[in-house]
Design brief:
The structure is a single chain. The protein is mainly alpha-helical. It has one domain. The chain is built from four helices and two strands. The protein has a two-stranded antiparallel ribbon. Strand 1 and strand 2 (35-37) form a beta hairpin. Helix 3 runs antiparallel to helix 4. The radius of gyration is 17 Å and the shape is globular. The protein starts with a helix and ends in a 9-residue tail after the last helix.
Amino acid sequence: MARILSKIIVALLALWATSIFIAEIMGITIYFPFNVVDERQEVPLHRLTSLRLSIALTFIYFAFRYIFFQSEKLYPIQFLDIYIKSLTISALFVFYSMNVKLNEYYFVLFFLIVSIILHFASRRRIRNYFN
């Protein structure tokens, strides 16, 4: 069940990412979920900082894995799981430290739920061949 739900969530996020990519090419900036930035407005700093720190956390994680566990394979769903967890953690700390309004925390809550679903979908199943 978690795999089906995770595939639906990943597909929806991919559609969302595709739409913001196409919109940006057309000169329209959109940030999560579908907030359009006009000429007088900018993407909120707490959102940009969260993204920047989540990329840094993801890099730290993979650098650590490369140094200590070089030969271990990772699947795309595992990468997404790690990045979404990094985004959730960094957004929580950034939003709290910048005293962001409580109604902005839906961003953190959404990605927390997504990260929990992706965690269960991406974990390895250990088969017991002796049962």
